[in-house]
Amino acid sequence: MIPEIPLKVEYSLTAYEESLIPLMELMNRWGEAHQKKCWHLDLATCRFGIKFD
User: Fold this and answer.
1) Which of 3, 37, 45, 50 is most exposed, with minimal Cβ within 10 Å?
2) Is the pTM of this model over 0.70?
3) In whole angstroms, what separates CA 23 from the centre of its chain?
């Protein structure tokens, strides 16, 4: 903790946690592409393929 007012805490990732960054970036790119693909659909249809009449 850094002695400031208000108190300030700095966090950092371990090397093990940093190894997940490429996976998280890939998942983010997939999510962005998927969102663009089905932006016009409702949530249930987009996520689960469920269509309500």
Assistant:
1) 3
2) no
3) 11
- Could you list the pLDDT tens digit for every one of the 53 residues in the chain? 667 788 888 899 999 999 999 999 999 998 888 777 766 666 666 666 666 55
Question: Distance between CA 23 and CA 6 in Å, rounded?
Answer: 35
19, burial (CB in 10 Å: exposed 0-12, middle 13-18, buried 19+): exposed
DSSP character string of 2-48? B--SS-B------HHHHTTHHHHHHHHHHHHHHHHHSTTS-HHHHHH
